[in-house]
Amino acid sequence: MKLFRLAAVLAVLAGPAYAQLPNINLMQDGPAKSPEERAAEVERDKAYKETLKKIPDSKASSDPWGGMRSDPPKQPAAPKASAATSAPKKTKSGTAAN
């Protein structure tokens, strides 16, 4: 049982160190391309870039809910200072005093 615990501790400690090793791939990803294949790839890339240049720039709004909204919200009116001072003041009995 002690041996199993020791092996588990060593595995846990060695994991981060193993992750830091460089990834070296000695095999090629695939066979090398022939000159004809390279020329065809260059031609495809050129045609693709030319096609991208033909796409017009989008000037319209990208707001998906733009058509669903009504008028923009109105700003609330600022309260008038003169209206607050012209109202009659009430006394404790509830009658107006001028």
- The strands making up the biggest β-sheet line up spatially as 1-2
N- and C-termini, Cα separation:
98 Å
- What's the order of the H and E elements? HHHEE
Largest sheet: 2 strands, antiparallel
Helix run count: 3
| Rg | 39 Å
Q: List the uncertain runs.
A: none
Strand content: under 5%
What is the mean pLDDT? 77
The count of β-strands is: 2
- Give the CA-based shape: flat
Helix content: 40-55%
- Secondary-structure-based class equals mainly alpha
Per-chain topology:
Blueprint (H helix, E strand, L loop, with lengths): L1 H18 L15 H20 L26 H6 L2 E2 L5 E2 L1
Antiparallel strand pairs: 1-2
Task: Describe the 3D structure.
With 98 residues, this protein is mostly helical. Helices cover 45% and strands 4% of the residues. It has three helices and two strands, in the order αααββ. Strands 1-2 form a two-stranded antiparallel sheet. The longest helix is centred in the middle third of the chain and has 20 residues, at 35-54. The radius of gyration is 39 Å and the shape is flat. The termini are far apart. The model has no long low-confidence stretch (mean pLDDT 77).
